[in-house]
Amino acid sequence: APAPGAIETLLGFTAVAKTLADASTVPAGYTAATVFATGDPLFAGVPAYRNDGTDTGYDRRSGDCHDGMEYFGLSAAGTPDPLNNDRALLGINHEYITQQFLHVAGPAARPRPASETDIEVDCHGVAIVEFAKTAGKFAYVQNSSFNRRVTGLTEIEISGPARGHPLLVTKFSPSATKTRGTINNCGTGKTPWGTLLTGEENWSGYFYRAANDQARRTAKVNTALTRYGRSVTATAGAASRYGWETSGPSDKYQRWDTSVTGSSVDGSDDYRNEINGQGYIVEIDPYRATSVIKKRTALGRMAHESAAFSKPVAGKPLAVYMGDDAQGEYVYKFVSSANWSAADATAANRVAVGDKYLDAGRLYVARFNDDGSGDWVELSMANPTVASYAGYAFADNGDVALHSRLAGDAVGATKMDRPEWCGVHPTNGEIYFTMTNNSNRRLAPTGSQLPLNPANPRAYSDIRGASSTQQGNVNGHIVRLRETGGEPTATSFQWDVYLFGAESGASPTLINLSGLTDDQDFSSPDGLVFSASTGLCWIQTDDGAYTDTTNCMMLAGLPGQLGDGGNVTLNYGTTSVTTRMGKKAIEGTLKRLFVGPAGNEITGMCETPDGKVMFINVQHPGDDTPVSDISNPSRYVSHWPGNGGYGAGGALARPRSATVMITKNDGGRIGT
Ligand code: FEO
Ligand code: CA
Ligand code: CA
Ligand code: CA
After folding, report:
1. Is 17 within the bounds of a domain?
2. What is the CATH number of the domain that holds 166?
3. What kind and span of H or E run contains 420?
4. Can you tell me the distance from the alpha carbon of 145 to that of 529, in angstroms, rounded to the nearest whole number?
5. Using the 8-state DSSP alphabet, how is residue 77 labeled?
6. Are 298 and 358 in contact (CB under 8 A)?
7. Signal peptide: which range, if any (predicted)?
8. Average pLDDT over all residues of the chain
9. Does ligand 1 lie within 6 Å of residue 543's CB atom?
10. Whose CA is nearest to atom 1 of ligand 1?
11. Where are the beta strands (DSSP E) in 269-388?
12. In total, how many domains does the chain have?
């Protein structure tokens, strides 16, 4: 522990330098240890991961591509104990797969062998994993009765306004009340009543749609499928990401074909509506391994990332903030109909509490005005602009919930530079949203490119030294909101740009507007989580623009408040854009604490309530290894974490996504 009387300084650590090392790099005085990696067994009798592509049974192991993560404290007696620092359940997203390393010689061609598809489907979803301290150090507990795997096949209830909707009728659920699986789980959230929220992000591409399917659908359904990324023509279909629908006649494979294949009017004899069962915020009670899981459709359907709650205030509704991660998509807020009751924080039936707060409420989309103000616009049939939208004739509020993007289009929401994670500042309540990047933002856009606006003001980037060329906003930025009156129900807000990602040497007037130095420059912010203990703003990157210089990283920020950097004008010669900014990140307000291994992104962060143990996820190390190199381990882009001594394989290990535990050697809080 720190010496008695020692004064703790936030950001007192020595910044980690940018590095291409195939390792977990932390500052002097810190330790990073791998604690839970792809394939690790989660139940008694499951053999250890062999790291040679022969492992099976991933519904009883860690899934792949660890992403968002939350900490749920557990007492010694095994009851919920949110403030426990020694025992917890971690809820961990398994977003997708680094496919080439899951099979002996990489994936087989289509039609995909059923045995490979089963592995891949099981590698998706969520893990609930017990962690407990042995001799003062956390390790995961293989045989815990709390351990659970939710996969791409797990039965899940449809809840909220879209439950029972005709657009959710399938052969599996003619009553449109359930679906199977949760996929591409990216960001997370933690409810004030102790459950996990997990966001389904790039689910659309998992579904095959046949070329001639357009002719079998109504114009309205074609509009919806096109808006969600599954447009087809008479001659060109939409291929699925992994080809799972090619694995045989069983409906567990055919469900991934979202074409009309039956003859029913309502879809009850095929899987034409199966795609409508994905795209939600999903709620899981981590404390009961058999609890019912629910898709909370009131929170809209999009490429969901995290879900961040406003600080609960007794007698007031709860606000939940969310982003839709695709180029030009929107920022959303859900406001519960029910007012918060503090007794619900410790209620035994957590699923029922979720029903109370997450099934009824109002969904809003954000408009960022040029003058630094903003509006939350309601998306429901009660809004005449939605109800009378010429672009898509909404049938009812279930239809609006299923097609939030189209409702956002109807009201002219602001097209953003890929909204990823959001987080709420623990003391001043301001809401931070990462805009990870948008290479399609331009001064003079053509085609699908987007024009500049003050909330997305950058057209230039310095990638690999080519600073004179417009490449759009490839380094990303972080937008910050303040609700009018600090109220969760506010329908207006103020906004600014907290930070612009940039290379430290880039133009200070058009690119490196935050004045980032070598110790703090970053590109493509993605994960963003505030520490409830230290108040530090943890920023994680998922980058492709600065990776010639450094692997992806995590930084700690000490943000001030909205507008504390004043106005800045980006002068493009013929035109200019003025925006409001946070303070420049001069030495002392932002520092790099962690750099991950080769080819990785950093995503997901949770910590013990005392702030002394932090868990983060390293996702898809070595993912740019070509399939043709799988038989030659010396050519793998990464060998982490095996090269650091974790699991089998050693210096020539297959790379694995993994949870990393960060501690400070003097026992102090992380970020000091
Ligand atoms: Fe899964 Fe938008 O990152
Ligand atoms: Ca560069
Ligand atoms: Ca993400
Ligand atoms: Ca990302």
Report:
1. no
2. 2.120.10.30
3. strand 419-424
4. 29
5. T
6. yes
7. none
8. 97
9. no
10. 186
11. 281-284, 294-296, 304-309, 317-324, 331-339, 361-368, 373-378
12. 1
